[in-house]
């Protein structure tokens, strides 16, 4: 069985009311660790490990469309995984999300990198 979003490989994570707009949550789907963020634009899943020095972004916080690393305060765009603030320069993977029945589902197959 395939685990792609196109084939329905969605994994349930948390109820929407448990996902805070300031403090993201760590979730795992098929062994892939992600940080789940909430903004006015919806729910977004990214790789949980900072591309600077391997801190867990789920220990950081979110402001608008950015998630901030807890160690050196670098940040990433939660919609695209793009590195925004120094000392982060390398992007991180993003993953598809959808909401069904009040639950946020993620797909453990990363979105294609933005060019
Ligand atoms: S470990 Fe994330 S900014 Fe340094």
Mean pLDDT: 93
CATH superfamily name?
A: Rieske [2Fe-2S] iron-sulphur domain
Radius of gyration from the alpha-carbon trace, in angstroms? 13 Å
Decide which structural class fits the backbone: mainly beta
In whole angstroms, the N-to-C terminal distance is 30 Å
CATH class: Mainly Beta
Number of strands: 11
Ranges where pLDDT stays below 50 over 5 or more residues in a row are none
Instruction: State the major sheet.
Output: 4 strands, antiparallel
Helix-strand topology string:
EEEEEEEEEEE
Name the CATH architecture: 3-layer Sandwich
Helicity range of the residues? under 10%
Number of contiguous helices: 0
Can you tell me the CATH topology?
Rieske Iron-sulfur Protein
Percent in strands: 35-45%
Keywords: 2Fe-2S, Iron, Iron-sulfur, Metal-binding
InterPro entries: Rieske_2Fe-2S (IPR017941), Rieske_2Fe-2S_sf (IPR036922)
Protein name: Rieske domain-containing protein
GO molecular function: 2 iron, 2 sulfur cluster binding; metal ion binding
Keywords:
115 residues, mainly beta, Rieske Iron-sulfur Protein, 4-stranded antiparallel sheet, globular, binds FE2/S2 (inorganic) cluster
What can you tell me about this protein's structure?
This protein has 115 residues and is mainly β. The chain has one domain: Rieske [2Fe-2S] iron-sulphur domain (Rieske Iron-sulfur Protein), CATH 2.102.10. It has no helices and eleven strands. The chain has strands at 11-15, 25-29, 32-39, 42-47, 61-63, 66-68, 75-77, 83-85, 94-95, 97-100, 103-106. The strands form three sheets. A four-stranded antiparallel sheet has the order 2-3-4-9, with no helix packed on it. A four-stranded antiparallel sheet has the order 5-6-7-8, with no helix packed on it. It has a three-stranded antiparallel sheet with strand order 1-11-10, with no helix packed on it. The chain is globular and about 40 Å long. The N and C termini lie far apart (30 Å). The mean pLDDT is 93. Residues 50, 52-53, 55, 69, 71-72, 74, 87-88 line the site of FE2/S2 (inorganic) cluster (FES).
């Amino acid at each position: 069985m395939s685990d792609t979003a196109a084939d329905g490989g969605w994994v349930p994570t948390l109820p929407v009311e448990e996902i805070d707009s300031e403090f993201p949550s760590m979730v795992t789907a098929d062994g892939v660790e992600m940080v789940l963020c909430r903004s006015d634009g919806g729910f977004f899943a990214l790789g949980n490990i900072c591309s600077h020095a391997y801190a867990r972004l789920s220990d950081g916080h979110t402001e608008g469309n950015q998630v901030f690393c807890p160690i050196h305060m670098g940040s990433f765009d939660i919609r695209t995984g793009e590195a925004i603030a120094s000392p982060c320069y390398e992007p991180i993977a993003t993953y598809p999300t959808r909401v069904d029945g009040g639950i946020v589902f993620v797909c453990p197959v990363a979105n294609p990198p933005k060019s």
